[in-house]
Amino acid sequence: MKAEYVDIVIVGAGLSGIGAAWHLQNKCSNKRYLILESRNTLGGTWDLFRYPGIRSDSDMFTMGYQFKPWQDNRTMADGASILNYVKEAASENDITQKIRYGHKLTTASWSSEKAIWTLTAQCQRTGAITKIQCQFLLMCAGYYHYDEGYRPEFKGKEKFQGTLIHPQHWPEDLDYSNKKIVVIGSGATAITLVPELAKKAQHVTMLQRSPSYILSLPAKDKISSLLKKVLPLKWVYALIRKKNIGRQQYLYRLTRTHPEKIKNYISKMAKKILGQNYDIDTHFSPSYNPWDQRLCFIPDNDFFKSIQSNNATVLTDQIDSLTETGIQLQSGDKVDADIIVTATGFNIEILGGTEFSVDGKNVDFSKTYTYKGMMYSDVPNIASIFGYINASWTLHVDLIADYICRLINHMDSTETQQCTPTLRESDKNMPSRPWIDSFSPGYIQRGIHLYPKQGSHEPWLNTQDYKKDKENLQNSPIDDGIMIFSKKKEVTE
Length: 493
Hints:
Blueprint: E1 4-5, E2 8-11, H1 15-27, E3 33-36, H2 45-48, H3 60-63, H4 79-92, E4 99-100, E5 103-111, E6 116-123, E7 129-134, E8 136-139, E9 144-149, E10 163-165, E11 180-184, H5 188-197, E12 203-208, E13 214-217, H6 222-227, H7 233-257, H8 259-274, H9 280-283, E14 296-299, H10 302-308, E15 312-316, E16 319-322, E17 326-329, E18 334-336, E19 339-342, E20 346-348, E21 355-358, E22 361-362, E23 370-371, E24 375-376, E25 382-384, H11 393-413, E26 418-421, H12 442-447, H13 466-475, E27 483-486
């Protein structure tokens, strides 16, 4: 089978893939690229998830692309608006025509002799196999398994007579009006679902094993509204984006240096709306420090207001089993339910589940070290985009995509075809740490073993620090003596 050739293949047409494509078009305009998307539409997460109330958990002035101003004044947008924003970005920049839908990357094989990746993509509709070759591979496939969310095994699940669903596979025709609903979980998905479901349901109970930190943000940015009256949109977007990036970084630093102060502030905000008599300590005071797991942000206290109105209740308890009519708790209490929603997270996956090999040897990414949080030791010409756990995902997209463009242009200028992050002798015995350190959510703990390791010093770190990454990725030399550049090997008889 003859392989099609393009210079660069992007895998994934979600928020990351569309953003990366824009950078390539504008900074490596001489390169031909193709986007492989396993689903039949673009948008990634924002098309896949359809549960009620789905929205961003980051402000849209930093979650939006650097190159496309977010025009709405809403701080946190609903899923449909974000999907439309991504589609507009793709259409306005002629990216849509570069997307090959319904093709899932299954294998990727690198040849140092030819300095080329050979990719196998399977058509999801027909099963037909396509071969594609490229010089550089940019993985933007996200980090969780699209086919199946995480579902804990509940004793007695087969007895439950109602509807049991996972938010990742929300039924389009589900009528939850006047139903008793239990949402299991306390993360961003549960916090989003509860106030939306409470608008129609008879009652919603959020059942959590342990609480999360919840902090309200204004639903609309008032400063943005005022500035738009006197300044061009691009200026306003840049100013609000800078303001919000600074706020994000400041808040995160405070959680690291003064966690008790942030804990007290968050508790005070919850008490302000729920009242002094509400049991904040039980239901909204986690045992860990803020940002040891991701903070849950809500617009204009909508989650707390649903509790205050008695349309929703929070229970902190352990599940013993499911029964015919609901849930039996370990405390001895029972919760009746017509619908149980398992907002219990997702399964993590590395690089879209693709099988990789270099010069005939399979790659185990867990044995590699991360290079600048985006490439892998001894694996040539591949990078992946993973956003921030403590800031907006798209901030990292812009930085990584910009760096990759610099890297590709450097290879062109030096007439090299292969770039390989390579451990120096002094690096080989350095202490290793998990790819994301000091971050304890279940989905990370279940899947972090699949990911590369961090080292003890640059560039073998995944800092999760926007300020450091911006300085490092934008200003550090491409040829740093660790990224080894070479030409394709000459074939000798």
